[in-house]
Design a protein that fits this description.
There is one protein chain. With 634 residues, the chain is α+β, with helices and mostly antiparallel strands. It has four domains: 207 residues, 2-Layer Sandwich (Beta Polymerase, domain 2), CATH 3.30.460; 117 residues, Methane Monooxygenase Hydroxylase, Chain G, domain 1 (Up-down Bundle); 51 residues, no CATH class; 186 residues, no CATH class. Helix content is 47%, strand content 8%. It contains 28 helices and eleven strands. A seven-stranded mixed β-sheet has the order 3-4-5-2-1-8-9. A two-stranded antiparallel ribbon has the order 6-7.
Length: 634
C-alpha cells in the first residue's frame, strides 16, 4: 500500500495528480467510491510512462458530467452503453471515467452491462495486467486490488486473457493485444497466443462494433510512437478491419521523427504535450481529403477532432505572444512556455520558421535551465534563509529568474538582493546557573578528613620514631628515602627502620593507658617494627586509633605520651597484621635485613635514616617481621 502511494505521488505528473484530485473531490461530494484502474495501474507497476488515466466509480459515471465540467474538465466524448465519459483536463491530461460493471455476452460483440462491485468489474476485463485497481478513497488510499495476480504477468511481461472466451466475446481484444505488444514489447502467454491465432483464422473480428472500431483507430494517433504501432497492426492484418485507407505508406516519416525529438526536449523541461493532435497531419499526409474527413468522422471521441481543427489557430496565437514584448526576456519567455497549452507549444517549436522564435526555443532547451545550478544555497544558509521560512519556494523562483536574466552576476549582488529576505539574528542564549547554598550540617569532605588524619598520624609517627630510634636494637642500617615534612618547624622526620632482636625477652602484652606512669629511661625491647603510614593510609590508622604495637620498659616520656593519647596498643595488636598497608615505609626489601649483633648500631641507623621524606614513604611488608618474633618467644 505504501509503495503504491509513493507511485501515485512520484510516477504521475503534476497535471495528472491535479486531475485525480479533482475527480476524487467530485466523487466524495456525491458519496461515491472511486478507483484508478486499467492501463494506468499497469504502467505504474511496470515502470512505463503513464499516458492516460482510467478511473471508475461505483455508480453511474454519466451523472457526473456537469460536476466534471465545473472541475475544469472538458468532455470530449461519451459511451452510453459502457456508462463512460472521455475527459480532457488542463495540462493535456486524458481521462476516461467509467462505472463499475459486470458484462455478459449473449452474442459475440454484443455486451449487456449491469452495475457491480469493483472486484466484479476487474474480473470482466480483457487481460490480467489490466485487471488491477488502486483505491483513491479516504482510509484506503493506495490500496491495491489484484484478484487475478496481474502483477505476476507484468513481471513476466506477458498478456494473459482473463477469460478463456475473451476473444470470442469481445474480438476487439485481439487488436488491443497487438497494439499493446507493439507499445510495451510484451508477448502473449502460450494459451492466449493459441486463442489469438484461432481468432484470426476463424474471423472473430467480424463481430466488432462501430464504436470499438473508431476507438481503436483513434488510439493509434495517441500512441507515443504511432508509426511503429501502425506497422504492427498492418503486419497482423488488422488495419483492413479498422480503416483500410490509413497506412504507414501514406505517412510523413521524416516529420514524425522530428516531432518526437521536439516532444522529448519539451518533456525534459517539464512540459508534457499530448502529441496525438500533431501526429494526425503527418500520419495522414498522403491521404485524400475525403479519406481524412471519413477518418475524423469515425473517431469515437469527437472532441479529438475539434482539437485537430483548432491546432493551427491556437499555434498562431501562441507564436505571436511568444515573439512579442511580453516574452522579451528569458524569464518572461520561460513563464509563458510553462503556462501555455502544451500542444500549441509543440506545434510552434516544430513548425515555426521565425529565427527569433527558434532562438528562444534553443535557449529554453539548452541555456536557461542552467541558472538553477547557480542558486546560492550556501549564501542563503549563512543569511539564515532556510527552507522553513515562509515564502522560501517563491524566493527561489524569483532568484532563479534574476539569474536567468543575468541581473545577478557576483556574490555581492546576490547578497544585496537577498538582504531584505534575511531574518534577524536570534538573541544569544542565556545560561542561568543556580547559586550554591552552603549546607548547615554539611559533612567535611573526604580529602579534608584525610589531610587532618595525615597531620595527626605524622605527629604520632614523629614521636614514636624519636623514642624507638634512640635505644632500639636493630638490624644493619638500610638506606631509606627522604620524606618531606608538612610543617616548616618539624624539618625532616626520620623514617623508622624495622628491627628484629635476637635475644630479647618479650614481656606480657599489657595495654598502655593514659594513667600509666612514665618509667625510667632504660633499654628498649622492640617486639615489632614501628609502622609509619603514608598519607593515603594515615586516615585509616587515626580513625581506628591503632598506633604501632610497642612494649618498652624505659620509653621516653614524650613517646609514651604520644602513644597513650592517640590509641591503645591493644587495638593495634589485633588489627594491624590483618590489614597490610598499601604503601610501604621504605622501598628496601625485608629479605636483605640481617639480625643485629651489635646493639650500638641502632643509634647509627636512626641517624642515617633521619633524612627520609614523608611523602615518598612506603612501608615494607610487615608479614616477615611478625613471623620472626614468635620464633624467638619459644
Amino acid at each position: 500500500m505504501a509503495d503504491y502511494i509513493y507511485l501515485l505521488e512520484n510516477r504521475l505528473s503534476q497535471a495528472q495528480r491535479d486531475s485525480l484530485l479533482a475527480v476524487r473531490e467530485v466523487a466524495r461530494a456525491k458519496g461515491l467510491t472511486v478507483f484508478l484502474v486499467g492501463g494506468a495501474v499497469r504502467d505504474m507497476t511496470s515502470g512505463s510512462p503513464v499516458r492516460d488515466l482510467d478511473v471508475v466509480v461505483q455508480g453511474n459515471a454519466l451523472k457526473l458530467k456537469k460536476d466534471i465540467e465545473k472541475a475544469h474538465g472538458v468532455i470530449t466524448g461519451e459511451n452510453e452503453a459502457g456508462q463512460a465519459l472521455f475527459v480532457r483536463f488542463p495540462g493535456g491530461v486524458r481521462m476516461e471515467i467509467g462505472s463499475t460493471l459486470t458484462v455478459t455476452y449473449p452474442k459475440p460483440g454484443k455486451a449487456v452491462v449491469k452495475a457491480a462491485t469493483i472486484l466484479d468489474d476487474l474480473r470482466r476485463r480483457d487481460f490480467t495486467a489490466n485487471a488491477m485497481a488502486l483505491s483513491l478513497n479516504d482510509g484506503s488510499y493506495g490500496l491495491l486490488m489484484d484478484p487475478l495476480n496481474g502483477v505476476a504477468d507484468i513481471e513476466n511481461r506477458e498478456l494473459r486473457l482473463v477469460s478463456n472466451y475473451g476473444f470470442i466475446e469481445d474480438p476487439v481484444r485481439m487488436i488491443r493485444a497487438a497494439r499493446l505488444m507493439a507499445r510495451l514489447g510484451w508477448q502473449m502467454d502460450e494459451k492466449t497466443q493459441a486463442r489469438y491465432e484461432t481468432g484470426k483464422q476463424e474471423g472473430y473480428i467480424s463481430a466488432m462494433g462501430e464504436f470499438h472500431r473508431g476507438y481503436e483507430t483513434e488510439e493509434i494517433f495517441h500512441e507515443e510512437d504511432p508509426l511503429r504501432v501502425l506497422r504492427k497492426l498492418e503486419a497482423e492484418g488488422w488495419m483492413k478491419d479498422l480503416f483500410p485507407a490509413l497506412s504507414s505508406a501514406k505517412a510523413n516519416v521524416t516529420e514524425l521523427e522530428k516531432l518526437r525529438d521536439v516532444q522529448s526536449q519539451l518533456q525534459m523541461q517539464g512540459i508534457q504535450p499530448e502529441a496525438a493532435v500533431a501526429n494526425f497531419p503527418y500520419l495522414t499526409a498522403k491521404m485524400a481529403p475525403k479519406e481524412v474527413a471519413a477518418l475524423k468522422k469515425s473517431f469515437a471521441r469527437q472532441g479529438f477532432v475539434h482539437e485537430i481543427e483548432a491546432l493551427e489557430d491556437e499555434a498562431k496565437a501562441f507564436a505571436a505572444e511568444f515573439s512579442g514584448k511580453g516574452a522579451a526576456t528569458p524569464s518572461q519567455a520561460w513563464k509563458l512556455l510553462h503556462s501555455a497549452k502544451p500542444e500549441s507549444i509543440l506545434w510552434v517549436a516544430h513548425t515555426s520558421k521565425n529565427a527569433g522564435v527558434q532562438n528562444k526555443f534553443k535557449g529554453f532547451f539548452t541555456e536557461w535551465s542552467q541558472a538553477k545550478q547557480k542558486l546560492p544555497y550556501a549564501l542563503m544558509q549563512e543569511m539564515r534563509i532556510v527552507p522553513d521560512l515562509p515564502g522560501y519556494g517563491e524566493l527561489l523562483d524569483k532568484l532563479f529568474f534574476e539569474l536567468m536574466d543575468g541581473k545577478l552576476g557576483t556574490v555581492e549582488e546576490m547578497k544585496a538582493y537577498l538582504e531584505p529576505y534575511s531574518p534577524p539574528a536570534p538573541p544569544p542564549p542565556v545560561h542561568l546557573r543556580r547559586p550554591r547554598v552552603a549546607k548547615k550540617d554539611a559533612k567535611p569532605a573526604k580529602s579534608r578528613k584525610k589531610a587532618a588524619a595525615g597531620e595527626e598520624g605524622g605527629e604520632s609517627a614523629e614521636a614514636l620514631a624519636a623514642s624507638d630510634t634512640s635505644e632500639v636494637q636493630a638490624i644493619a642500617p638500610v638506606p631509606a628515602k627522604s620524606v618531606a615534612a608538612k610543617s616548616g618547624a618539624a624539618g625532616k622526620v626520620a623514617a623508622p627502620v624495622k628491627a628484629v632482636a635476637k635475644k630479647v625477652e618479650e614481656p606480657k602484652k599489657t595495654p598502655v593507658t593514659k594513667a600509666a606512669a612514665a618509667p625510667a629511661k632504660g633499654k628498649a625491647v622492640a617486639k615489632a617494627p614501628v609502622k609509619v603510614a603514608a598519607k593515603g593510609v594515615v586516615a585509616k590508622a587515626s580513625a581506628k586509633k591503632a598506633p604501632a604495637k610497642t612494649a618498652s620498659k624505659t620509653p621516653a616520656k614524650k613517646a609514651v605520651k604520644a602513644v597513650a593519647k592517640k590509641a591503645p596498643v591493644k587495638a593495634a595488636a589485633k588489627k594491624a597484621p590483618a590489614k597490610p598497608v598499601k604503601k610501604a615505609a621504605a622501598k628496601s626489601p625485608a629479605k636483605k635485613t640481617a639480625p643485629a649483633k651489635k646493639p650500638a648500631a641502632a643509634k647509627k641507623v636512626a641517624a642515617k635514616a633521619a633524612p627520609a621524606k614523608k611523602s615518598a614513604v612506603k612501608h615494607a611488608p610487615a608479614k616477615k617481621a611478625v613471623k620472626v618474633a614468635p620464633k624467638k618467644r619459644r
